[in-house]
Write a structure and sequence with these properties.
By secondary structure, the protein is mostly beta strands. The chain has a single domain, classed as Jelly Rolls, CATH 2.60.120. It is built from no helices and ten strands. Strands 2, 3, 5, 6, 7 and 9 form a six-stranded antiparallel β-sheet that branches.
Length: 97
């Protein structure tokens, strides 16, 4: 449904979810252990509605979380702790009912 790659911290483009639940997947590569945040904002209201965070170890790390938010348009604020060199990819897929 949506894939975005980057480094450090940034807002993503808007994407639309057509069903619920849905899954946020992530892959992070970093040189040190750090917190990794994916804040979810409603595109229409710019309101933060969900804020999962993980502590990722040094090196490559993967994870996912099932999200029970309504089908609509969203965007993410993604932050890889204080490591501006951390590379990450976040993608969204439809989840199982």
């Amino acid at each position: 449904m949506f894939t975005y790659s980057g480094q450090g911290k940034t807002f993503t483009p808007t994407f639309t979810v057509n069903s619920t639940p849905w899954i946020i997947h992530w892959h992070v590569e970093t040189t040190r252990q750090l917190p990794f945040y994916v804040w979810v904002y409603e595109a229409e209201t710019n309101r933060g509605v969900y804020s999962p965070d993980w502590t990722v170890p040094r090196g490559p790390s993967d994870g996912q979380i099932l999200v029970h938010l309504s089908a609509r348009s969203y965007y993410f604020w993604i932050e890889a702790g204080a490591d501006i060199e951390a590379k990450w990819t976040v993608w969204v897929t439809e989840g199982a009912q």
